[in-house]
Amino acid sequence: MTTPRILLIGDDPNLLRTLRRNLVGRGYEVAIALDDEEALSILATFKPNLCVLSLDFTLVKVDALSLCSQLRQSTPSPIIVLSAMSSPQNEVRALDAGADDYLALPFGMEEFLARVRSSLRRSTTASTDADSEQQLIMVGDLLIDTEKRLIIRHSEQVHFTPIEYELLLYLVSHRGKVVSHRQLLQAVWGSEYGEEREYLRVFISQIRHKIEQDPLRPTYILTEPGVGYRFHD
Amino acid sequence: MPSSPELPTSPDLSAENLALRQQLEELTAHSQTIQTLLVEVNRKLQLSSASIKAAVSSLLTPDFFWDASAQHEFLQTIDDSVNQASELISLVALAFQIETDSLHIHREPQMLQEILAAVLDEITAKHSSDALRLNYPDDGRLVLVDFEYLKIALKLLLEGILPAEPRANPILITALENPSGWLLRMDGIDPQVLEQVIDVVRCVHEILTSIQRMQPDKVLMILLANQLFKLLGIQIELADHKPAMQLVIPAVA
Question: A58: distance to nearest CA of chain B, Å?
Fold first, then answer.
């Protein structure tokens, strides 16, 4: 397997230096971008397997959330955002902007490295699954091509981010059964997760907007209050 | 029978009302600006604390051996971050003192040259020794200021305008005596920075625009320096020949 490439984006030199030293020490290849323009330019050439984006730019002119959206549109690689502003609203905003994971500052290095491993594992598993399985799943007016990782609805392809795809696939493959929040988080994000219910709220809402006739009255992904979700069989 | 006090007329009241409204608007804008700046500075403070935690937890990782160079880098990061946090805490504390009107200023006759020399020492200890040049006569009239707070105000102003990276040309400060006291002229400031300083000095409403272009802690430094200058009876103005600015410092009568 090739060395995983990680792009660190932020403008606090002290934090970046420490993150880079830890990642390089563990065998990752690391590039650093100090602003949005540099990030998008490095993204094109470095082709990272993971982006780590600090939302706390000291220069206010850099809009980190907008940068997160641009990264999301430009790469399928997971994005971890780091932020000193830890509140559920900020987490939701970051996830809405395309982040796959949110780590509040300050954090211990072990936690950061665990999140990195988990994100990389997830994206590797996703591509391996795509290589190994070849099947079409039809549910209602949805067609899921697991070989090409495509979702087709009413004969048109619907764009899904890697996390959205993994979530939908997991629910579909357990259709008719209630899947708990924890089970879903651990299946899609990794075993370190379990309490991050707002992640599910954001991503399930995004999926509903893509596949449901009326996202407010879903017929595919049903909420099981206090427990989790169920894909209607 | 004593005559009753004269009642204000309607135009008087309207004018007073208008003046009070303007004052209120200015105070509200100022308060919003300070709040915004403090939120940004707080964010920077949290980044410093995160850098310290990240570096310390790296050193404490039990299953990984760091060589001497890596250990040194982590310790350097901790040292830099602690210094940065300490400066930001001082800034927030000063903002609190100024905003709550709890600063005790004691104006006494002082030699401006001594204050300038002290500022130069502190600035060059932190920046390159070529960052700043001072030019002043050996003697002259005394100024009526608080030594410590004028030193702090000058330091904040200079920290606010000095670039992060060393430049070929230093900022040149020239002290000149004039009939009312001293003029402290500052040449060699980046024209964009100078424009922002003047924005901060002239009108609090425009400061939030400056934040888009400057680091918020630098804007806060300039804002606090300006407030300290006001408390000390010192004016900041653009010099006649641009791009430069000058401080007008009153001398002992």
Answer: 6
User: For the ranges A61-70, A196-205, B125-134, which has the lowest average pLDDT?
Assistant: B125-134
Is A112 part of the contact surface with chain B (CB cutoff 8 Å)? yes
CA angle A50-A55-A59, nearest 5°? 125
Structure tokens at B85: 């946090």
| Euclidean distance between CA atoms B237 and B133, whole angstroms | 20
Is the ipTM of this structure higher than 0.95?
A: no
Q: What is the pLDDT of residue B125?
A: 83
Tell me what pLDDT residue B54 has. 95
The answer to whether B40 faces chain A, any CB pair under 8 Å, is yes
Q: Which of B33, B42, B43, B65 to mutate to test binding with chain A, by most A CBs within 10 Å of its CB?
A: B43
Q: Which CATH class is domain B108-250?
A: alpha beta
Reading the block at residue B213, the tokens are 């272009």
Q: Give the separation between CA B101 and CA B95, rounded to whole angstroms.
A: 10
The yes-or-no answer to whether B10-99 and B108-250 have a common fold is no
Q: Structurally, what CATH architecture does the domain formed by B10-99 represent?
A: Orthogonal Bundle (1.10)
Q: Flag whether residue B69 sits within 8 Å of chain A, measured between CB atoms.
A: no
Which tokens hold the place of B51? 């850098």
Q: How confident is the model at residue B196 (pLDDT cuts 50, 70, 90)?
A: confident
pTM across the whole model = 0.75
Query: How near does any CA of chain A get to the CA of B186, in Å?
Result: 26
Q: Model confidence over B136-180: pLDDT tens digits?
A: 888 889 999 999 999 999 999 999 888 777 677 788 999 999 888
CA–CA gap between residue A112 and residue B143 (Å, rounded): 55
**Taken in order B214, B220, B225, B230, is the CA torsion positive or negative?**
positive
Other beta carbons less than 10 A from residue A208's beta carbon: 19
Domain ranges of chain B: 10-99, 108-250
Question: What's the mean pLDDT in B185-199?
Answer: 85
Would the CB atoms of B212 and A112 count as touching at under 8 Å? no
- With beta carbons under 8 A apart, name residues in chain B contacting A110: 57, 61
CB within 8 A of B150, min separation 6: which ones? Answer: B110, B115, B143, B228, B232, B234
